[in-house]
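Notes from the 1:1 (GR / supervisor)

We went over the backlog. Supervisor wanted to see one worked example end to end before approving the batch request, so GR pasted a single chain during the call. The sequence is below; no edits were made to it. Supervisor asked that the structure be written out right there so they could see what the output format looks like.
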Amino acid sequence: MDARAAVLDLIAEIAPEIDIEAVPDDEDLRDAVDLDSLDFLTLVERVHETTGVDVPENDYDQVRTLRGWSDYLVARAG
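Structure output shown during the call:
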């Protein structure tokens, strides 16, 4: 699984107006692509639906960035 590409695809579904190629790896996604709280929670839910990886609220700080998402998913993918 290409975790980075999977997360980018989901971000594009949630916020289609975003230039997906310009999403930085290490900037907080809520700032970088203007995801509000509901969008972020939708992303967490869609990641779970797509990958089967559950992201508990305590881990939200680990998935603030695109690199964080990638690392998190790679570490937990079965």
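Supervisor's comment: The chain has a mean pLDDT of 93.
Batch request approved.
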